[in-house]
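Work package 3, deliverable 3.1, input record:
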Amino acid sequence: MKYSEIYSTDFINKVNEIKSEAATGIIADQEITKNFIDIEDMLKQLGFSIIKDDHLPVSGRIDGETILIDSSENQARQRFSMAHELGHAVLHQRAANRTDHNDGYSLEERSSEVFANTFASQLLMPRNLVKKLLGEIIQRHGYNPKRITNIEFSAHFRIKLATVSKFFGQ
Ligand SMILES: [Zn+2]
């Protein structure tokens, strides 16, 4: 599958708007070789550098073209934090932190947080990839919606279980 088959042109353009000058951005025609979204690769294509720090006081932080990630958290959380910080960049916010504690956020900040979380979910678990995975499972095992659990989805897409549950409205 190509990025253009996974995301809408609008979505790709919106994300590419924020790429740094020398960066290629997301290439719509690029073939995705993995079964999940390689967020690290995507951030690099957009010109961000990623710094992993196991002593970060927050899950993630964006500072200009640098995204800092708390490497003491599990892979799924780290990937979500990367996508979340990219969400801030799409909002043209180049200085923001990600934590799970919403206390102390102003109303405006809270709405940015909601946007960044929704953006991260849609980026890491795009509908078209979910459809593809379901198609493959049905082909292999016949139609049995109970066949695949949220835990398997979470492992497949390398995302938090909470994101999967939200996707399926549970
Ligand atoms: Zn945030």
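The CA atoms of residues 67 and 151 lie 28 Å apart.
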